[in-house]
Design a protein that fits this description.
This protein is of the alpha/beta class. It contains eleven helices and 20 strands. The structure holds aspartic acid and magnesium ion (MG).
Length: 405
């Protein structure tokens, strides 16, 4: 079997951790499998390098920043190759570019444009285990590029696709994807499997098991990903093409507390008003999460409420203030004390009852719903921030994700 194994920074904190991982890889190779290892930088190395660059030039030179950040993965790859060799598995460290990962020149957020598997194939044919630096590639003019934070996941999936690996295993300090964040919902359970689309909905809700770009790449190339723990045995979670038996109603619930609601109160109720409010935000590159319009006045006035990510709050408020002025609206309301509770599942699309169950669960807990949003496989409610954790637990229970009636 051909296996790609990716190890995250928390699995490579120090030399003891690296040695333990090397031992595990060695055993896999000894069992007769062809292994390609992908590594992240050790522990918090990338954050530390970002801090240093921040102090020197305020992160202004993207090309040099990528060059610096790439050194984190180079260290762990070299040390891993040495540790493997010491255990008796011959291994060579390779930079992303040397392993055939070609990208565009968007430093810091480079896109993979192609993968040339030749170097890996040559090493595998010689019985050498390649240890590839995650998170990086090479631009058309030969510069080192990085693939966005968390990009080692993407490296592993791209390489698994290129060498047609039988399995792509992503190792971290958690045993997989859960039915809810276990720090908030104590009886959350690790899922056996979920679809790429479900994972994407959860990733954008802050379930940081896999980088979003990596899931998109996996979906496009059809690579089945197995997310599992370095530190405990267990099957982990498969992220794969949607299977018929997935059709449980709701697979997982998620909470996003990094949102702000902005209300434009008393704007004219006529065509083009919502368009104007949203266009300006779009032009500024601000993503609107949910929008809602209510006809709350009998004087042909309406209220528009929208939510944006907290990081965009200040800019969004400024733009909305301006829009409100242009429209002659009466007030701007900004509320950062909100949270979004979402139920995600491939089964959502076939069952109206899912929305009813969600609303009933919140109603029974006396939690007020401020806004509602839906996508094909997700239903979300905005609630007060102070209700957020309770709401998530209620909804988790209402969909029987804790296995209790
Ligand atoms: N070391 C990089 C980061 O911290 C890439 C990765 O770990 O996947 O974002
Ligand atoms: Mg990661």
């Amino acid at each position: 079997m051909r296996v790609v194994q990716k190890y995250g920074g928390s699995s490579l904190k120090n030399m003891e951790y690296i040695d333990a991982v090397a031992k595990r890889v060695h055993q896999t190779a000894e069992a007769g499998h062809a292994v390609v290892v992908v590594v992240s930088a050790m522990g918090d190395t990338t954050d530390e390098l970002v801090d240093r660059a921040q102090q020197v030039d305020g992160l202004k030179t993207a090309r040099n920043l990528d060059f610096l950040l790439a050194t984190g993965e180079m260290q762990s790859a070299a040390l891993m190759a040495m540790a493997l060799t010491r255990h008796g598995t011959r291994a060579f460290a390779l930079m992303g570019g040397q392993a055939g990962i070609r990208t565009d020149s968007q430093f810091g957020q480079a896109r993979i444009t192609g993968v040339d598997a030749e170097a890996l194939e040559r090493l595998l044919a010689q019985g050498v285990t390649p240890v590839v630096t995650g998170f990086q590639g090479i631009s058309p003019d030969g510069a080192v590029t990085t693939l966005g934070r968390g990009g080692s996941d993407l490296t592993a999936i791209a390489l698994a696709s290129a060498i047609q690996a039988d399995s792509c295993e992503i190792y971290s300090d958690v045993p997989g994807v859960f039915t809810a964040d276990p720090r908030i919902v104590p009886n959350a359970k690790a899922l056996a499997s979920l679809s790429y689309d479900e994972m994407l909905e959860l990733a954008s809700q802050g379930a940081q098991v896999l980088q979003t770009q990596a899931v998109l790449y996996a979906r496009q190339s059809g690579v089945t990903v197995n997310a599992r723990s370095t530190f405990e045995e267990g099957p982990g979670t498969r992220i794969e093409t949607e299977q018929a038996e997935f059709n449980t109603l709701v697979t997982a619930v998620a909470l996003d507390t990094h949102l702000t609601k902005i209300g434009l109160v008393g704007v004219p109720d006529r065509p083009g008003v919502a368009a104007l409010a949203c266009e300006k935000l779009a032009q500024a590159g601000i993503n609107i999460d949910l929008v809602f319009q209510a006809l709350s006045h009998d004087d042909a006035r309406a209220d528009i409420a929208l939510t944006v990510a907290d990081r965009d709050r200040d800019r969004a408020v400024r733009i909305c203030q301006q829009t409100l002025g242009e429209l002659g609206g009466s007030a701007l309301v900004v509320d950062a004390d909100i949270a979004k509770v979402s139920a995600v599942g491939a089964g959502v699309r076939n069952h109206v009852g899912v929305a009813a169950t969600l609303f009933r669960a919140l109603a029974d807990a006396h939690i007020n719903i401020q806004m509602i949003g839906t996508s094909e496989i997700k239903i979300s409610c905005i609630v007060a921030r102070s209700d957020a954790e309770r709401a998530l637990n209620q909804v988790h229970h209402a969909f029987r994700l804790d296995g209790k009636d």
